[in-house]
Amino acid sequence: MAQNKLTKKEKKEGWKLLFDGKTTQGWHTYLRDTVGAKWQVRDEALVFDPSKPREGGGDIVTNEVYENFELQLEWKVAKGSNSGIIFDIQEDPKYSATYLTGPEMQVLDNKDASDNKKQNHLAGCLYDMSGDSTVSKPHPVGEWNQVRIIQDKGHLTFYLNGIKTFEGQIGNDEWNNMVAHSKFAGKSFTAFAKVAKGKAKPATLPAAAPGDSETTKQE
Questions:
Q1: Confidence of residue 203 (pLDDT cuts 50, 70, 90)
Q2: 202 close to 85: Cβ distance less than 8 angstroms
Q3: Rounded CA gap, 121 and 118, in Å?
Q4: Residue 185, SS3?
Q5: Residue 199 and residue 66 in contact, taking contact as beta carbons nearer than 8 Å
Q6: Nearest-angstrom CA–CA distance, 163 and 183
Q7: How far apart are CA 38 and CA 58, in angstroms?
Q8: Domain 17-218, what fold?
Q9: How far is residue 154 from each of residues 92, 150, 168, measured CA to CA in Å?
Q10: How many Cβ atoms from other residues are within 10 Å of residue 148's Cβ?
Q11: Are 196 and 4 in contact, with CB atoms under 8 Å apart?
Q12: How far apart are CA 34 and CA 12, in angstroms?
């Protein structure tokens, strides 16, 4: 597929570009109306630039809400990077951060990031809930990684570079047990993953360069 372009067949199938390769149209900083200055479009990629003023940062999220979907994107990071792709975000002032409501696929430099000690914190894993080094196979720093996140009536499937890293059902007993044994069992996370529908955010921490082609198919 051409980067940041859809074929006639893909359009007919229901695919939609989330990033046009030229602008940040369709995105905004969480709980704000515009996109902060740290977010730049360079070489048809959406890039987070840590050199820009601090107030220009923050997570960016889609303008639209998605429920049953397949999300495809690519990301690459610099040495030591730690970030994530969060979805089903409930954007409301009572939730100060995206991760208070949305599950996350981890984005990480597995080799040099400081958060590489816990197995389910590795790239491609369902962050702090499921996954390990047997399924986390990111490409070396500076190379693009391919992501697919599929959600169908709360049934989640993650792929990183063609390898399935997670499959499960939001809200069932197995899911609730994973939440109970994670950081999301804390009192700050009472609204975590309660709704299988919401907005999405790409990777955001310094030096992360998410997606030169981000597409979603809404079922």
A1: low
A2: yes
A3: 5
A4: helix
A5: yes
A6: 25
A7: 8
A8: Jelly Rolls (2.60.120)
A9: 21, 9, 8
A10: 17
A11: no
A12: 30
Q: Which of 67, 98, 49 is nearest to 208 (CA)?
A: 49
Quick: pLDDT tens for 82-92.
999 999 999 99
pLDDT tens profile 90-131: 999 999 999 999 999 999 999 999 999 999 999 999 999 999
* Tokens found for residue 99: 């991760």
Task: Read off the tokens for 27.
Answer: 């995105």
Is residue 156 over pLDDT 70?
yes
**Cα distance between residue 122 and residue 114, in whole Å:** 11
Cα 129 from chain centre:
15
Q: Residue 102 in contact with residue 86, Cβ under 8 Å? A: yes
Residue among 91, 119, 92, 122 at smallest CA distance from 104? 122
The residue behind tokens 């709980």 is 31
